[in-house]
Amino acid sequence: MTKFAQDIILTPVITEKSTSEIADGKYTFKVAKTATKTEIKEAVEKLFGVKVLSVNVANYDGKLRRQRYAIGRTPSYKKAVVTIATEAPESTYLTKGGKATKANAKVKTSIEEFGFGQ
């Protein structure tokens, strides 16, 4: 069974700390609990068209909450901090006649889809 990128990346985490890390090229997402680092990397590259350098993952247990006499838990989740390449790699190739030409980069250097770009 194949997993779709939309099923792996659930929501962005927008906090004061995560917004300050955007300048370093680090974006934080809530991801599916069963997702691995390689699946998260492929999903971010496919959804946003960026080059992913590294993925750090943390599992969070739900917190205990109490309403009057009933005790329950908030949902547990998995969080991923994805570091992307903020500088596009320059690549050159030789054209006919031996002249060097720069190739245009096909990857973006930031993620603006959620409104918290650089």
Strand and helix layout:
Layout: H1 5-8, E1 9-12, H2 16-20, E2 26-31, H3 37-48, E3 52-60, E4 64-67, E5 70-73, E6 77-84, E7 91-94, E8 100-103
Antiparallel strand pairs: 1-2, 2-6, 3-6, 4-5, 7-8
Key features of this structure:
118 residues, alpha+beta, two-stranded antiparallel ribbon, 3 helices
Largest sheet: 4 strands, antiparallel
Rounded to the nearest angstrom, the radius of gyration is 19 Å
- Give the class from helix and strand content and strand pairing: alpha+beta
Strand arrangement across the biggest beta sheet: 1-2-6-3
Structure summary:
It contains 3 helices and 8 strands, in the order αβαβαββββββ. It is α+β, with helices and mostly antiparallel strands and 118 residues long.
